[in-house]
Amino acid sequence: MGIIKKMHYKSKLILCYLVLVSFPLILCLVLLYQSIVKPVRENAVSAIDQRLDQELNTINSKIEKIRNVSYLVSTNTVINKFFVPKFYGDLELIEILNNDISPLLSWLEASSPEISYYHFFTNNPSIPETQYLHQYDDYRSEPWMQEMEHSIFDKGFYLEPCHINRSYSYGYGGEEQMVYSLFYPLLTSNNFLEVCIKPSVFFEDMKTIPAMESGFVAAVNSDGKIISDLPAEVTADFRHSLEERLMEGDCLSDSNKGPFLVSLAQTEYLISIKQIGSLDSWILCAVPGAEIDGPVLKAQQLFTLVILAAAIGIVLLSYLLSTLLIRKINTIIDAVHKIQEGDFHVAIPVNGEDEIDQLATDINYMSFKINELINRVYKARMLQKETELSALQAQINPHFLFNILDTFKMIAIIHDLDDFSDSIAALGNLMRYNISPASYHCTLEHELQIIRDYINIQNLLLNNRVTLLLSVPDNLLRFEIPNFILQPIIENSFVHGFENKLSELIIKVTIYRGDSSIIIKIEDNGTGISAEQQQMLTAAMKKSTETLEVEPLSLEPQEKESSRSGKSIGILNVNLRLFLLYGRHYSFTFSSSDLGGACNTISLPVSIPTKEQEENFLNERSKL
Predict the structure, then answer these.
(1) Angular region, 429: left φ>0, alpha ψ -120 to 50, beta rest
(2) HAMP domain location, by residue (predicted)?
(3) For the chain, domain boundaries
């Protein structure tokens, strides 16, 4: 903004033309980009997403087929009859295995090549372990077996995530490789079927069809390991880097995460991931970013050339138009220079009715009015001098009053009227504190002395029935607070709290330091303050800080209100002053005192504003 202020009007005019013309041009380019360039990238991302959906549908179809086969095996009558709890003799067992079970399982393996192995877990101890048959009790404590039982209880089957093929106690589990296991319960209790499926059954078709031109689709398990075959051109280092990147952050944990860019082998790749929920695995599509962003970059280069050509044309046009308009302005500038030199009889020729001609007319009128204003300013200064003299004269009256009070004090001392003398001295101190010019704040020691003077005056009126209790650490006496904030609160106790009270009147002031604040508590043994009165005071204080005005507030019933002149305006004034000085960094609360009356608690920050800060703050407030 400072640079613009220092620019010549011609430069500002050219800049204005540039902005006005460039805005619709840029808007058109943005719309063109949104309608042509951006959809290129979105279509590519959509094509990748569709490819993943197709692979996902194919995988789910294969899973459903394997589940159907497994379910038919688990409900086969021959198999379930074999696992009925009973004792088999050796000859009977050999006959059933050779004639019924082995042929059936061999037929199943031949007819369902997608299933690599069949395993049965039985709780019949008379059935020996074979490559197909295993004792349930030998594995029931295994975590995978417990997870299987829990899932079967909830869903009726269990599809175990990809794992290394287990070697059971019989010694045959197939070669060590990654497999998925699908479990189904048999019709007889505690007998289960496990079928093992190689990952290639689900993912073997992925590498045959590339994603776009040179991308690929792969399957990943929950550990971030790629469990499907990759195209031959994908190196082992590239595969390892991709697996490391997949395990960083939330790439796999956030199934709703959209496509993201990663740098692999010094090439940017766009990665899209979708979860295969039933397999606890993911399929991803990796496409070089250049294949997606290539058309976009070409379009951006074309747009850049168009923008540069348009900018040059706009600058030339703006320069020509501004030169035509600046001539009138130069005439006005020459006239203003003459006015600056003291020639107020300038007359600028006006030949039109546009804004610049109107400005020339206004300057002509201004030069005419300046002479008249000079005379007015001179008279105003004379009046100001008279006002200052009157203010100095008015300061004499308070000093005269202070001298009279000092004379009364000396007379009281001469006649041994000590109480009367102390009261006159206290009254004089209070009047000086209120009338004399002072800073915005004072020390606690000074403020407490004002309270003592005020109590002395009240004791003169109330026959020494008032007791002042002070509890202030010596190290806080030099702490500075806003002046004249404690006396109005104590005065409020006399006006509202001690009405019709004939016994001893107690005022207790306790001051201590908190963690980052000074706490001031003023208590009395008066009539106290009700919950309703506390709410009224709190609401009035909040309103005064919002409006920056104090309205008189009566806390008495209507039948008493007319007999009471005090309306709690002192407390509201104190609160507003604290708000203007500290903002929201103070507190002023009310509660019941252990003395039986009211307790006023003020919390002030340890550091108070300087006089300059206070004046600046009040000036800003006055502008609101």
Answers:
(1) alpha
(2) 323-375
(3) 9-302, 344-393, 441-554+565-623
